Amino acid sequence: MLGFPSPRPATSLVMFAALALALEPAHAQELRNGGKLLLTNGVSTIEGAGGGGLATWSAIAGNATQEGIGGSVHGTVIELPDYNWTSHGVSLGFFDRVELSYARQNLDTIDIGAALGLGRGYTLNQDVFGAKLRLAGDVVYGDALMPQIAIGVQHKRSSDSAVVAAVGGASPNGTDVYISATKLFLSQSLLANATVRFTKANQNGLLGFGSATQNDPKPQFEGSLAYQFSRRFVVGGEYRTKPDNLGIAREDDWVDLFAAYALTRNVTVTAAYVDLGSIATADNQRGAFLSLQAAF
Q1: Could you tell me which residues are beta bridge partners of residue 76?
Q2: How far apart are CA 220 and CA 216, in angstroms?
Q3: Are 49 and 101 in contact (CB under 8 A)?
């Protein structure tokens, strides 16, 4: 229905769904005994960490509580007027305290690649390695006004150092550090999240980090607000500010409006309208986001 042109993202999503559905009968009892409430672990962000899609939350990936080890796999596609984005990754949550994650990001430049001299369909690639530590609080339980607070780090490595240098990026590799607070207000069915990220990433790191004139990490904000219509269905929105380091083109903040539905205890699908603004000389990059997560 969303009209994604490439068969590879669809194939990846089907594979993730098949894997999750195959695992569910074998692990259903364990998940019921030690599982979190539906959707309270969030979904996988484009960087692989637990969160809301574009914004990282303090929630630890996986369905397991403090008595177990959980995790998730995800596949995400974003179709924009001038680009196609895909990402996939895996995350592990240990005793609802520590999260380790990995994601592979790919940005197909389609015709923009030819205009920039890279060749039509040139794809930018990046690996993201993440770790998160819950410091205090709980997303659901405990003091109603005390959020779950976590700190995290994400090390990003671009595979396109020549392109990064050509656009003016100071380095193809960089590390983001963030602190996040997340709380579900059960009586109001409302979830709120606020994250402060220290970063110098250009377009999330796909165009490298920093520049000759601006090469220091700057604080950026990521916010999420969601309403839970039922145990399985959540709608909300996110806003993410970004640094603007490169002189060749401006970089805009990101916005999305999303809906997430838990198909089963293990499988969640998220669809969203995203506005990513200007990306490498191409303005008005608005489109469709679709992600599938399998968690245990």
Answers
A1: 87, 291
A2: 12
A3: yes
Rounded Cα–Cα distance for residues 27 and 163 (Å): 45
Between CA 269 and CA 74 the distance in angstroms is 10
pLDDT in tens, 114-126: 777 777 889 999 9
Does residue 52 contact residue 102 with C-beta atoms inside 8 Å? no
Handedness of CA 281, 130, 97, 134 (dihedral sign): negative
Q: Which residues does 262 contact at the CB level (< 8 Å), separation at least 6?
A: 38, 39, 231, 232, 233, 268
DSSP secondary structure string for all residues of 168-188: TEEESEEEEEEEEEEEEEGGG
Q: What is the pLDDT of residues 13-58, one digit of tens each?
A: 434 444 444 344 433 334 444 478 888 888 999 999 999 999 999 9
Give SS3 for 11.
helix
**Residue bearing tokens 């999750």:** 20
Residue 251 · residue 276 · CB < 8 Å:
no
Q: Is 270 exposed, middle or buried (0-12, 13-18, 19+ CB in 10 A)?
A: buried
